[in-house]
Write a structure and sequence with these properties.
mainly alpha, 55% helix, 284 residues
């Protein structure tokens, strides 16, 4: 199996000139503490508790869901503690959840000319936003902070029996979300397996971006045994996708490569942690 060069990955992120991503990468390889990295990322948190600029596709001075869910992932990577930053984020998500259970972007986002996957009023986007928020809240153990069951019902209604509309992303969020939130429901089990099948085909057909396979591997690990074969398939691609300059291959614009590189470092940090947490073998 291929391996990665962590030092080259860290140097690549540092060379990008992004102090927030550099701080995250430094924590991932043990060069900074979680507190130091948290201090760096909080420059992107706004007074209302939401976040901006965590996704390079949006640089507006506005709290939006597309960037706030990314901040939740960062807070998870830094330990998921109930810090003031997390408390403010949870408050923002409580106040922005729609009565029907979903999250959407504010109309004010339009003034910043966002890409179509961030536009408000789009049903596929609402499914994507809601799946991302709920997956990260469940991973944090903070699902009771919002109307979680209403959000799950919204997501269940969006499944057409084969896939979610438009986006690959929704599938890698819903799969671990419903796996972690195990209700024993046949419907949920079918959605989990359907998401897994969709993602397997996306990898085989190369319709999933190479950089996104970091997230697919991470999600499959979260989902547990039911997605173990998908995890190994995605992980092999991740391990093969480090470029000669230390960054991760992607078809997205170059500005995203430092973010994907940080994501790969945290994926491997999680895998190392999972291995350390395994019970010792029983000697007979």
């Amino acid at each position: 199996m291929a391996t990665i060069n962590r030092d080259k990955a860290f140097q690549f992120v540092q060379a990008s000139g992004d102090p927030v991503l550099s701080a995250l990468a430094a924590y991932a390889i043990g060069e900074k503490s979680a507190a130091e990295a948290l201090q760096a990322i909080q420059t992107y948190q706004r007074p209302d508790g939401g976040w901006t600029k965590t996704d390079k596709d949006f640089q507006g001075d506005l709290s939006v869901i597309s960037t706030t869910w990314v901040a939740l992932q960062w807070l998870i990577w830094l330990g998921g503690d109930r810090t003031p930053a997390l408390e403010r984020t949870l408050s923002f998500l409580r106040t922005t959840q729609n009565e029907a259970g979903y999250w959407d972007e504010p109309e004010a986002i339009r003034q910043f000319n966002p890409p179509f996957w961030m536009l408000p009023g789009s049903y596929p986007n609402q499914l994507w936003f809601t799946s991302a928020v709920c997956c990260k809240l469940k991973e944090l153990g903070c699902e009771k902070e919002v109307n979680f069951e209403k959000a799950l019902e919204f997501l269940r209604m969006g499944w057409d029996g084969v896939r979610y509309p438009v986006f690959v992303h929704t599938h890698w969020m819903v799969m671990p979300l419903l796996s972690l939130h195990d209700t024993g429901s046949v419907q949920d089990k079918n959605i989990i397996l359907g998401c897994k099948t969709f993602l397997q085909k996306a990898i085989e057909s190369s319709s999933a971006d190479p950089g996104d396979l970091n997230a697919v591997a991470y999600a499959s690990r979260l989902a547990g045994d039911i997605a173990d074969d998908l995890y190994h398939k995605a992980l092999q691609h991740v391990l093969n996708n480090q470029a000669d300059d230390g960054g991760w291959i992607t078809h997205y614009p170059e500005k995203h490569r430092p973010a994907f590189t940080v994501e790969a470092l945290f994926l491997l940090k999680k895998l190392a942690h999972d291995e350390d947490m395994k019970p010792p073998p029983v000697c007979l």
